[in-house]
Amino acid sequence: MQLSSIKQTFSVPYEYQLHFTHGVFHIDNSLLSDIIREYKPNEAVKVLFVIDKGVADVHPSILSQIEAYCAAHHKQLKHTKSMVLHGGEQSKNSSEAIDAVLKGINENAICRHSFVIAIGGGALIDMTGYAAAIAHRGVKLIRIPTTVLSQNDAAVGVKNSVNSFDKKNFLGTFAPPFAIINDSDFLKTLEQRDWIAGVAEAIKVALIKDNEFFEYIAEHAVDLKNRDMEVMHHVIYKCAEMHMHHISQGGDPFESGSSRPLDFGHWAAHKMEYMTNYSLRHGEAVAKGIALDLTYAHLVGLITERDLQHILGVMLAIGFDLSLPLNSNAETEELLRGIEEFREHLGGELTITLISGIGKKYDVHTIDMTLMSQAIAKLNKYATVN
Ligand SMILES: NC(=O)c1ccc[n+]([C@@H]2O[C@H](COP(=O)([O-])OP(=O)(O)OC[C@H]3O[C@@H](n4cnc5c(N)ncnc54)[C@H](O)[C@@H]3O)[C@@H](O)[C@H]2O)c1
Ligand SMILES: [Zn+2]
Q1: pTM: predicted TM-score of the whole model, two decimal places
Q2: Confidence band (pLDDT; 50, 70, 90) for 255?
Q3: Within this chain, do residues 122 and 200 fall inside the same structural domain, yes or no?
């Protein structure tokens, strides 16, 4: 029997900005300093930098640049420490990196009025964001993403995570950043695979929402492959904008529902990342996952053979390898188990986003396993021939 109840309701407005620049740590670039000044106009704020080793290795002067920048902008930034940690998916696979960031936050007395500034790929930013979110129940985070995928997707949203129990993103929180700074100079040092991988997320968002954007990518497939910076900038800008718009306008910023259209192609991607011991980049796996779900969408009669060939052809022209890393029936079955694991991660009813045409998302709530197995075989055959 209920005796009484007290109702509680409040809402919290969130606002953050994604800035585009180059040379973020050039002394005369005041962007970072201005962002911090806006928060505290009259006093220097403590900052702790967490830097992806993959970035520090190819930008050897970054540590001295950061120190010089903070010295020049000492009225806003009080540099505490720059920690260099291994990036890549391995940084999300054990608690070592999280512990290191937490230790850095503790030892440098970073409080909720100070900043952690994460510089690196999506993995290091996810991991650092998680540590920042749980320290003192959340210290402020500025993200400086350095890969295509992190600039157009991983770093622009409200989530952070690490992997646990052999599952991608098992631990994590929803924690909007204070700001994000995309510096295009970092992209110049990416390996070709990381330059391409992030385009998969742009293809994803274009396929579910924007036919014209997909055609832009299609027309510039070779420019993208050849590292045309202007084209890449447009693709990153548009993709980031669409992701941010979906979060603010899609009606479910903290993903309480079961539908997650931005995870088109991701049930298979997450499983393949795990099955290959993360030797596949997230974006590479997403490209394969999208190709698989498109092939399935064709087999269930949602898209024409012509559309399927067009989309797969664009992905190949950009340089994606669309073959699935499956060497036995047991591995195929393991991949298929990814569908149920995906449902579990989201909770509620199974919802897999497919498309019913380029730019038109279409949710389904059941997957025909026989047809999905056929899609796997059909895609692998296609990928071997092309
Ligand atoms: N939180 C989210 O909403 C969200 C969304 C999408 C993806 N993600 C996560 O993002 C991660 C993938 O991110 P990613 O594709 O950036 O890969 P990544 O972070 O694994 O980085 C790939 C490699 O590039 C190196 N690197 C980073 N910047 C570089 C640079 N400028 N020059 C040379 N090398 C550089 C890294 O050290 C690493 O070895 C996955 O863990 C994925 O789950 C998160
Ligand atoms: Zn993704």
Answers
A1: 0.96
A2: confident
A3: no
- One domain for residues 329 and 360: yes
Residue 189 CB–ligand 1 contact under 6 Å: yes
| 135, part of any domain | yes
Q: Which residues pair with 267 in a beta bridge?
A: none
Ligand 1 contact, 205 CB (< 6 A):
no
What CATH code is carried by the domain that includes residue 62?
3.40.50.1970
Across 341-370, b (16+ Cβ under 10 Å) vs e yields: ebbebbeeebbbbbbeebbebbebeebeee
Query: Is the Cβ atom of 278 under 6 angstroms away from ligand 1?
Result: no
The number of folded domains in the chain is 2
The CATH code of the domain that includes 262 is 1.20.1090.10
Separation of 133 CA from ligand 1 center, angstroms? 19
Asked whether 172 lines ligand 1 (CB < 6 A), one says no
The residue type at 180 = I
Q: Is the CB of 308 under 6 A from ligand 1?
A: no
Binding site membership of 54 for ligand 1 (Cβ less than 6 Å) = yes
| Phi and psi at residue 97, to the nearest 5° | -70, -40
- Mutation choice for ligand 1 from 50, 51, 52, CB with most ligand atoms inside 8 A: 52
Nearest CA to 343 out of 258, 251, 256, 263 is that of 258
**Position 257: which residue type?**
G
Residues 378 and 235 in one domain: yes
pLDDT in tens, 260-314: 888 999 999 999 999 999 999 999 999 999 999 999 999 999 999 999 999 999 9
Is the CB–ligand 1 distance for residue 265 below 6 Å? no
pLDDT in tens, 120-137: 999 999 999 999 999 999
Q: Is the pLDDT of residue 341 over 80?
A: yes
Which residue has its alpha carbon closest to ligand 1 atom 12? 122
Determine, yes or no, domain membership for 142: yes
Ligand 1 centroid to Cα of residue 271, in Å, is 17
Tokens linked to 32: 């970072």
Range of the domain at 151: 17-189
Whether 91 is in the pocket of ligand 1, judged by its Cβ within 6 Å, is: no
Which numbered atom of ligand 1 lies nearest the CA of 186? 31
d(CA 358, CA 366): 21
Q: Is 202:353 a contact under the CB 8 Å cutoff? A: no
